[in-house]
Design goal:
Number of helices: 12
Number of strands: 12
Largest sheet: 6 strands, mixed
Structural class: alpha+beta
Main location: cytoplasm
Catalytic activity: 5,10-methenyl-5,6,7,8-tetrahydromethanopterin + H2O = N(5)-formyl-5,6,7,8-tetrahydromethanopterin + H(+)
Subcellular location: Cytoplasm
Pfam family, one: MCH
Strand order of the largest sheet: 1-2-8-7-6-5
Pathway: One-carbon metabolism; formaldehyde degradation; formate from formaldehyde (H(4)MPT route): step 3/5
Radius of gyration: 18 Å
Number of domains: 2
Amino acid sequence: MRDGHAYLNRSAQHLADKMIEQAGRLGINHSRGHLGEHVIDAGASCPGGVEAGLRIVEICMGGLGVVSATLDTGKWPYSVNVRSSQPVLACLASQYAGWNLSHEKYFAMGSGPARSLARVEPLFDEISYREPEAKSSVIVLETTTPPPAAIVEKVSKATGFAPENLTFIYAPTQSLTGAVQIVGRVLEVAMHKAHDLKFPLGDIVDGAGRAPIPAPHPDFLKAMGRTNDAIIYGGTVQLFVRGTSEAARTLAEQLPSHTSRDHGQPFADIFKKFKGDFYAIDPHLFSPAEVIVTAIETGDTFRSGGIHEAMLKQSLD
């Protein structure tokens, strides 16, 4: 795993400042919270849009990802494309939504480079990244409301920054911004599953992914189902890894979503079947439909899985 000059928080702050400067054209709102924190509403009480979603994906990846939207051919041609030459830091140290931020009735999972400063998740026992020169930080929340003061204080204490040096970005799942930033996690879910499969993180040297952008839906369950299905049944990821061809082959075979016992149903139906308990769902479901793994030291490439058009039609149309 590399870091070099990978300043996750500094890079993300620069991108967040750009969003604030361009708030009008991005269709977002910037304000100051009760404790002086910066708050960016990217789709709750404002229109937001695809560009705002793409910017948030870049922020979530700590500036270590290249993110774009493309219009290709096919039934679901509008897609988010992400790539990173430091995927462990971009996806696991920053983008992964692994920080539980709850207070009374408020609940959100925190994503973004502030996680790398707080280091409250077990994952950081395996990621040694440190950023001593950081002076501010950004956290992204998939929710409909800004964080209450108690959450701001929690993040402030964990990161060591005063609230005025923190930026909170939020967008609901039901918004177009939210849909884009969620499917922009297609590479991240592959990285997280590779970690769960005990593949050596340091052997993953590069990665790219794409997934279709689903239409937003005002119903939370349907919106959540569509964004998950876009990755589970429509996502493609390629990883470049060090090591043997056999290790690359095994990773390719185990990584796609079809290896999960819960594969084959729309995510909304799965969620309802388990009565809304995320932890009852097979975690191996959260992975791309199609995986390509290239062993860079042998030149061999292995493919597994495939786009599930019937399931996409059932969910996205």
